[in-house]
Amino acid sequence: MVSSLKKILQFINNKQINYIVIGNGSNLIGSDADCDGVVLDLRRCGSEIHHDGAVFTVGAAVSLLTLARFSAERGYGGLSKLCGIPGQFGGVVTMNAGALGQEICTYVQELHGILAGHDWSWRPEPADWGYRHCRLPSGVVLTSVVLKLKEVVPEEENKLILSELRRRADVTPKGRSAGSVFRNPPGEFAGALLEQCGCKGLSVGNLHVSERHANWIVKEGEEPGHASDCRLLVEEMRRRVQERFGVLLENEWHWVNLRQNLLHELH
User: Fold this and answer.
1) How far apart are CA 21 and CA 43, in angstroms?
2) Buried b (16+ CB within 10 A) or exposed e, 37-55
3) Of 124, 130, 181, 262, which has the highest C-beta tally within 10 A?
4) Which listed residue (110, 195, 236, 252) is catalytic?
5) Cα separation of 108 and 142, whole Å?
6) Which residues in the chain are classed under CATH 3.90.78.10?
7) Among residues 180, 210, 238, 240, which one is catalytic?
């Protein structure tokens, strides 16, 4: 799988073809416009897990929940607070995914991937991580992540995982969405600021801000939503908060063009 991906990336780089990489796409917004280029769909590229004691090597397509359950069965864990985050490890690491005061960087020891068509490895330092950020070189495609987990009692860890999944199901608005719209500004919660600005219920087209969570946009009905409508709604939410509180919210989503001419899905 990795060798096939490397060949594709070498070809793309040699031909100077524009490309984007997607995994689970849980915080990804497409575009209404066409463009030339290639989408690398890596949802099935790197789904294996290996471990030697507390050290786990995880493919970039593995989800947090899969690893949390896999490691708990073997007496290792610590990921229960993060297990409800829907991303795969490629995106989880790139965004330094976090929840309930915990971040994935706490456990990451080494990253492996492909850069400009060649094998790439990196051991990040604490300074290389930030809030929803990892200082990855531009153009790196992650293939696996090495983590060191802590020893746990399997039964207790599984209870924590189940509890977090139930909690997240209770607080997450129903419907199609790309997750939280904005990152929390320092010392504040984006959702609270947006709610105070009357953003709940705002709508453009078939997209609206959830009545349950002001930092959440949900699509109604079966018709596809338009990226242009989504941008208008996001900018109105941002404008209201900046106007009232002087805080410029930072979008947590990735905005990319998915209507490409060619799609490579790696099996």
Assistant:
1) 10
2) bbbbbbbebbbebebeebe
3) 181
4) 252
5) 13
6) 176-247
7) 180
Q: The CATH number of 176-247 is which of 3.90.78.10, 3.90.550.10, 3.30.200.20, 3.90.180.10? A: 3.90.78.10
Look up 69 and say whether it is catalytic.
no
- Please state the rounded mean pLDDT for residues 141-164: 97
Nearest by Cα to 176 from 233, 237, 229, 220: 220
Q: Where in the chain is the domain with CATH 3.30.465.10?
A: 48-170
What topology is assigned to 48-170 in CATH? 3.30.465
- Clarify whether 235 is annotated catalytic: no
The pair of structure tokens assigned to 165 is 């999944």
The shares of helix, strand and coil residues in the chain, as percent rounded to the nearest 5, are 30, 25, 45
Token look-up 């419907």 returns 175
From 43, 69, 132, 168, the catalytic residue: 132
Give the model confidence (pLDDT) of 57-83 as tens digits: 999 999 999 999 999 999 999 999 999
**Is 244 designated active site?**
no
Question: Count of residues for the chain?
Answer: 267
